[in-house]
Specification:
- The chain is of the alpha/beta class.
- The protein has 25 helices and 15 strands.
- The N and C termini lie far apart (98 Å).
Length: 689
């Protein structure tokens, strides 16, 4: 019996081992199949636990919001709390007629911010002309080859159905031209207008409208990120509110982009022990350092390396085409001191640390391309432990799922060394030649693409080479990357731009974000630092940048404190003339009915908002501001100074100012006040205004 038992046990173990081998083989096969799908960028595979690269590091895992320090760093701007969005028509607003003057077909060129700035203009122009709008064509996607066939042109970035439904009471919209007009367009038999940036209503009514009535169709080419002037006459104010309805309500990203943007935002704000609103707040930072912007404004010498050559080559190209009117060689130091160059990431980090943000503050780097790549961001990483971007908060397969099913192109040939036979053949040909042969022209140096966001090239000629298939596809992907950054930046607790102008001198990605934040939540903290004053302050400590004294820190805090409100007032004069969406106030805002008298002068006199919010909004308005008004009087008498930020203020181990919330924190702050308090009078002045 014992022998039979041993045989049975051995047989059973053999079967178990065989079953294990079979299961292992099946597991390997499944993994190989999934890997193949992922390589082709068509992965639909998902797992319950998402693994991404960011691992947050905090000095104190506990984070509370009931402290004066928190209100100073993250709290709302009380002076504009009564300001609320209101883009609804304020008078008689007729529906679009069933019979229009014809069709308007639009081709929009440029990047993300140019597309987003152009679409509201196109809708307003269509209503002005009493025309039927064909869904605009986005050139960055139609010119790209190999991108997903699931999403084309407008639908690659935005939700077509939502867009059409949202503006149905303003403009008639169709997806395509009728067959006869579509054929005429392919034959280039329809009239076309290449409209300039900020064209006037007079231009459309006296030049475009007669042609539209005659031919029943016109094509508008929008190359510069806007086709209607920013400021309109008083009698056309409803068209401004139409722009707001399009930009802030109708333009919704397509489902896949919106879902990934929401995931990135959730992972960002849930870094604390619990989800928002009790999780940790974060700062969104847009460097604004694109090659075009640096070239346009003459900021090449900020880098002092090969990047300078890349920028100067681009500036020469822009001068040749009339985009830049100045000289090729510009003193970048003078441009920087005049506030015409972007703030470097290192400089922004110093400003934020001086203002009181601790080393474990979460900073999200937005805005797409950062010229110079991750190397430019190294000083910012050295000052803040939790510097992240969309790549830190998403996985490759999630991005691939957002791109859709894409064809695989092998346009990058792998360079292999020549064989021995080829070398011998070349040597024999050289020896048999009787006289030297002319050499072929040297090829242009190749382009280089870096996944961190930098691309650049230096060519042997003045002309830039044509984009490859991979580069055209990447340009389309950049639209989706910036869409994610846009959503995160609008929802951020704090936003700070490094620059707010693009490569044509027009408002950039950062300007649109600040305009959206002003419309959606005017009291959300948005820094608009004066770059000229900032450059002067930074020059004072250029030789000892990481050992600033109390006086300098107080000056920085005054500068940033003023930039929140005074920068907003200044942008109404400076930015609005270029882009309405960068400052959609007062046309698209209202004041709540129970606002305090102390805030009325700023909102009404400086911002020009006099329209009272509808009565149905009063309940929402009161609920939103109840908690903030509870502590308003207390804040006016508090010196909300972060005492930990003084002297050598870049160390990781900070005093109790960064440990918000418990009894130990209160005692630590009290001890710091006894040792020495940095008095910031601007905090008190700002509270008393």
């Amino acid at each position: 019996m014992k022998g039979e038992g041993k045989v049975f046990l051995k047989t059973r173990m053999k079967w178990i081992g065989l079953l294990g081998l079979v299961l292992s083989a099946l597991s390997l096969l499944v993994h190989f199949l999934l890997a193949g799908f992922t390589d082709d960028s068509i992965s639909d595979y998902s797992i319950p636990v998402t693994i991404f690269s960011w691992r947050p590091v905090f000095d104190n895992p506990r984070f509370t919001r009931q402290t004066p320090l928190y209100r100073r760093l993250w709290g709302p701007t009380r002076h504009v709390e009564p300001l609320f969005p209101d883009a609804n028509p304020r008078g008689y607003h007729s529906d679009p007629p069933a019979r229009t003057n014809g069709f308007v077909f639009v081709r929009i060129q440029g990047g993300f911010h140019e597309i987003r700035n152009s679409i509201p203009d196109v809708v307003a122009v269509s209503r002005l002309l009493n025309a039927t709008l064909v869904i605009p064509e986005i050139q960055s996607t139609t010119s790209s080859k190999g991108i997903s066939s699931q999403f084309k042109s407008f639908a690659y970035l935005y939700n077509e159905e939502h867009f059409m439904a949202s503006i149905a009471k303003d403009v008639r919209v169709v997806k395509t031209l009728p067959k006869n007009l579509k054929w005429a367009r392919r034959k280039k038999q329809i009239p076309s207008f290449k409209v300039s940036y900020g064209s006037s209503p007079y231009y459309y009514l006296h030049h475009v409208l007669p042609v539209l009535i005659k031919h029943s169709v016109v094509e508008l080419v929008v190359p510069n990120g806007g086709c209607l002037q920013a400021t309109l006459p008083r009698d056309l104010e409803e068209y401004q509110r139409l722009r707001c309805r399009v930009a802030f309500h109708a333009l919704q990203f397509r489902k896949e982009v919106q879902e990934l943007s929401t995931k990135v935002l959730q992972r960002l704000v849930s870094s604390g022990p619990v989800l928002r609103p009790l999780g940790r707040p974060f700062i969104a930072y847009d460097p604004g350092m694109t090659r075009e912007a640096l070239a346009y404004h003459g900021c090449a010498e900020l880098f002092q390396d090969v990047h300078t050559e890349l920028i100067q080559h681009k500036r020469a190209w822009m001068i040749k085409r009339g985009i830049v009117k100045g000289k090729l060689s510009v003193d970048s130091a003078e441009q920087r001191l005049a506030g015409l160059c972007p703030l470097m990431p290192e400089e922004v980090g110093i400003l934020l640390r001086a203002y009181g943000y601790s080393w474990d503050t979460i900073i999200y780097v937005a805005g797409g391309e950062v010229f110079g790549g991750q190397r430019t961001l190294i000083p910012l990483h050295g000052m803040f432990e939790n510097v992240v971007d969309r790549t830190s908060l998403s996985t490759g397969w999630e991005l691939a799922r957002m791109y859709g099913r894409e064809a695989k192109h092998k346009d990058i040939k792998q360079m292999t060394p020549p064989s021995v036979e080829e070398d011998t053949k070349q040597d024999s040909l050289k020896s048999t030649r009787q006289r030297p042969q002319p050499l072929p022209p040297p090829p242009a140096r190749p382009k280089y693409y870096n996944i961190e966001g930098w691309w650049g090239w230096v060519a042997e000629s003045d002309n830039e080479p044509e984009n490859t298939v991979i580069e055209l596809r990447t340009n389309a992907h950049k639209l989706l990357w910036e869409a994610i950054d846009y959503v995160v930046s609008v929802e951020a607790d704090v936003f700070i731009p490094g620059f707010d102008r693009d490569g044509k001198g027009h408002p950039s990605f950062a300007s649109l974000v600040m305009g959206h934040r002003l419309y959606q939540s005017a009291s959300a903290k948005t820094f608009r630092p004066d770059r000229k004053q900032t450059a002067m302050l930074l020059e004072e400590i250029r030789d000892h940048m990481y050992e600033a004294n109390h006086t300098w820190i107080a000056s920085v805090r005054k500068l940033l404190k003023r930039s929140i409100l005074e920068g907003l007032i200044e942008s109404s004069k400076r930015s609005k003339g270029f882009s309405f969406l960068s400052h959609p106030v007062p046309e698209c805002s209202c004041i709540k009915r129970d606002h305090r008298v102390s805030n009325a002068s700023i909102i009404e006199a400086d911002l020009g908002v006099t329209h009272r919010c509808p009565q149905w909004k009063d309940g929402v308005v009161i609920e939103r501001s109840k908690d903030n008004n509870k502590n308003a009087e207390k804040e006016e008498d508090l010196d909300e100074e972060d005492l930990s930020s003084s002297g050598l203020f870049f160390g990781h181990k900070e005093s109790g100012g960064s440990s918000n919330g418990n009894n130990e924190t209160v005692n630590s702050e009290a001890n710091n006040k006894e040792e020495g308090q940095l008095e910031d009078q601007e905090e008190l002045e700002g509270a008393e205004r």
